[in-house]
């Protein structure tokens, strides 16, 4: 709390303070004789109300405010601190300490709401007297006479019914609060809790909404607008009636001038100052919806929905705003090019992961979020086809029984699979006979992949997939090596990222860290890489996958002119086409398909359609990155069989 130089008469049990030196003017307003009468009246009325307190034994215990934490808005930022989204329920609020609120705003609020705030004990006898007369004449409650402390009580504890009993309860609780809390603390709670209009609760959120600036930076003109809103925020809102806003502002300025807290010149200057009005921020849409949706999902799994909407979290993501925008534009443009080529694919999804950290760098769940909010990057399970084969080939290398130059037969074969027989076929229907394991992967031959899967064990392949972070259901069927199961682009990019790091793995994440509104860290995703793959086997796989791009394989259109490895994927009936590839700095999965699983067309392949999208994105993503080499398998000992 701010330390004041002016203090009301106090005792050791009830410290009082005032915010800033401007409240020296309070003493001037009160005057010696008036102040004495006011304080005497206050004591008499306070004594009477304390007696009435016996009748209010069921009132809330105001001591709970010592640990009171109002609901706060959660904010999501990009990796550099740019705000992407805010999450809240009914109350859009950011709590700030009193010293981070403009002095102009504090005195404007006091002037219009409770100019004797630092002189009374929770109730103002003069205001109560006026209210009693007005209410007696009308036969009901038409005037409140509430102090700021009483308003705080009403906001936190009581209903808004305009009844005599409620007003008495309000007064009793106000006195109790004043006995426990310092004035600055009460004012801080008040400013952070009251409603300012357009779903903004608390002064900071309101300042950001109305003027696009922090409450600490409000000038006198803006502060008096804000203070004028409190009585009826929507009625006086500049978003609704600018002229009424200016009329109300002028009233606040006149009150401050009359109190001697500002000069006539300052009041006139504030009236003449143009207001640069912002816009309501409570329900503003996300800057990067595919990213923030993924973040919200992860937060809710860890903390629960209520904590996310009310806990005031500050969430730093792994994504750079400009990089993500580039990825989204790349996907949208690629989709248009596909249409121009006559390929009527509904959707394209892309996920990029940094192998050094396993931080998600880009995540694009479709070609146009406004038209479809389904996030295919993390929600859609699609068959990867031959892009699944590297998991089988790595398992073979890690077994110690195979090298890239071991021989495998690409010849007809038939397996019993449950109650039926399964006879794998190569794309195009031909057979190559005896060939090296490396060449069978480069050429994406199906039969060698199935034979290797049976040789090393499908259960072992599934185990490797789990190690690499693939959590989607994987049935131990004979056709699994050909990608006959559904996975997400996120799972594929994350798994390939571990190949790119030569076996070092961290759990892929889109969140760097989460703090509470006070800066305390509640989630820290600092990478903790662990070696989960055999280095020789991983390097041997990468060397083979480089041939897919640069050595006469199925994806020459993915060639970047720098070391890169990857694998195409094309499913039966061409319903899904993929290219998943990596450099030492970035692993990226690209998927093309239709949401209704309609075939894309005969002859459509991952190498012909997905690989060019991958290439264009990677060139842009890596344009400022140095060219790095993959580690050679010869540097590592070969595993024993």
Task: Describe the protein's architecture and organization.
The chain folds into two domains: 222 residues, Penicillin binding protein transpeptidase fold; 305 residues, DD-peptidase/beta-lactamase superfamily (Beta-lactamase, 3-Layer(aba) Sandwich), CATH 3.40.710. 41% of the residues lie in helices and 13% in strands. The strands form six sheets. The chain has a five-stranded mixed β-sheet with strand order 2-1-6-14-15. Strands 8-7-19-18-17 form a five-stranded antiparallel β-sheet, sandwiched between helices. Strands 3-5-4 form a three-stranded mixed β-sheet, covered by helices on one side. Strand 10 and strand 11 form a beta hairpin. It starts with 23 loop residues before the first helix and ends in a 20-residue tail after the last helix. 48% of the residues are buried. By secondary structure, the protein is α+β, with helices and mostly antiparallel strands.
List the helices and strands and how they pair.
Blueprint (H helix, E strand, L loop, with lengths): L23 H7 L1 H21 L21 E4 L5 E5 L4 E2 L9 H11 L11 H14 L9 H9 L7 H17 L2 H11 L1 E3 L2 E2 L1 H9 L8 H10 L12 H18 L4 H9 L16 H15 L1 H6 L3 E4 L3 H20 L6 E8 L4 E6 L11 H4 L9 H10 L8 E4 L4 E3 L2 E3 L10 E4 H6 L3 H11 L1 H10 L21 H12 L3 E2 L5 E5 L5 E4 L5 E2 L3 H16 L14 E6 L5 E7 L4 E7 L12 H16 L20
Parallel strand pairs: 1-6, 3-5
Antiparallel strand pairs: 1-2, 4-5, 6-14, 7-8, 7-19, 9-12, 10-11, 13-16, 14-15, 17-18, 18-19
Quickly list its features.
641 residues, alpha+beta, Penicillin binding protein transpeptidase fold, Beta-lactamase, 2 domains, five-stranded mixed β-sheet, 19 strands, 41% helix
């Amino acid at each position: 709390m701010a330390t004041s130089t002016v203090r009301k008469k106090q005792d050791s049990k009830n410290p009082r303070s005032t915010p800033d030196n401007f409240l020296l003017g309070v003493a001037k307003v009160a005057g010696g004789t008036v102040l004495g009468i006011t304080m005497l009246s206050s004591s008499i009325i306070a004594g009477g109300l304390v007696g009435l307190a016996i009748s209010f034994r069921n009132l809330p215990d105001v001591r709970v405010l010592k640990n009171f934490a109002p609901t706060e808005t959660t904010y999501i930022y990009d990796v550099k601190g740019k705000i992407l989204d805010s999450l809240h329920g009914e109350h859009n609020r950011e709590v700030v300490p009193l010293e981070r609120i403009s002095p102009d705003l504090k005195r404007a609020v006091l002037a219009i709401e409770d100019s004797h705030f630092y002189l009374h004990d929770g109730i103002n006898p003069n205001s109560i007297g006026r209210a009693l007369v007005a209410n007696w004449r009308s036969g009901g409650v038409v005037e409140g006479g509430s102090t700021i402390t009483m308003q705080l009580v009403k906001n936190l504890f009581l209903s808004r019914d305009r009844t005599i009993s409620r007003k008495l309860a309000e007064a009793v609780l106000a006195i109790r609060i004043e006995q426990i809390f310092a004035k600055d603390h009460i004012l801080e709670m008040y400013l952070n809790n009251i409603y300012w209009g357009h779903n903004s609760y608390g002064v900071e959120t309101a300042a950001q909404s109305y003027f696009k600036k922090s409450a600490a930076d409000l000038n006198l003109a803006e502060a008096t607008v804000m203070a004028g809103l409190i009585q009826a925020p929507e009625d006086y809102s500049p978003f609704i009636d600018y002229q009424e806003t200016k009329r109300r502002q002028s009233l606040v300025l006149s009150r401050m001038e009359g109190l001697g807290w500002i000069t006539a010149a300052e009041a006139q200057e504030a009236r003449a100052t143009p207001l640069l009005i912002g816009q309501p921020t409570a329900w503003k849409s996300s800057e990067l919806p595919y990213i923030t949706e993924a973040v919200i999902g992860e937060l809710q799994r860890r903390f629960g929905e209520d904590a996310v909407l009310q806990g005031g979290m500050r969430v730093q993501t792994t994504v750079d705003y400009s990089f993500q925008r580039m990825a989204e534009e790349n996907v949208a443009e690629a989709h248009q090019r596909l249409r121009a080529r006559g390929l009527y694919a509904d959707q394209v999804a892309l996920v990029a992961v940094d192998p050094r950290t396993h931080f998600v760098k880009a995540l694009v769940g479709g070609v146009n979020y406004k038209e479809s909010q389904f996030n295919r990057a993390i929600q859609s399970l699609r068959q990867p086809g031959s892009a699944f084969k590297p998991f089988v080939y790595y398992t073979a290398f890690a077994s110690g029984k195979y090298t890239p130059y071991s021989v495998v037969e690409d010849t007809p074969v038939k397996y019993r699979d449950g109650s039926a027989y399964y006879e794998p076929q190569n794309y195009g229907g031909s057979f190559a006979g005896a060939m090296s394991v490396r060449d069978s992967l480069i050429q994406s031959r199906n039969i060698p992949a199935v034979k290797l899967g049976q040789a090393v064990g499908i259960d072992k392949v599934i185990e490797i997939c789990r190690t690499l972070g693939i959590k989607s259901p994987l049935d131990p069927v004979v056709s699994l090596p050909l990608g006959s199961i559904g996975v997400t682009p996120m799972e594929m990019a994350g798994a390939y990222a571990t190949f790119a790091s030569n076996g070092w793995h961290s759990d892929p994440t889109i969140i760097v860290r989460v703090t509470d509104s006070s800066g305390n860290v509640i989630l820290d995703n600092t990478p903790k890489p662990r070696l989960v793959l055999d280095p020789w086997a991983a390097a041997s796989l990468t060397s083979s996958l480089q041939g897919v791009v640069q050595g006469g394989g199925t994806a020459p259109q993915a060639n970047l002119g720098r070391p890169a490895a990857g694998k195409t994927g094309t499913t039966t009936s061409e319903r899904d086409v993929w290219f998943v590839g990596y450099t030492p700095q970035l692993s990226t999965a690209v998927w093309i398909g239709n949401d209704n699983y309609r075939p894309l067309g005969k002859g459509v392949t991952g190498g012909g359609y997905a690989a060019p999208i991958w290439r264009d994105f990677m060139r842009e993503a890596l344009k400022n990155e140095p060219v790095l080499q993959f580690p050679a398998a010869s540097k590592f000992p070969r595993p024993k069989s």
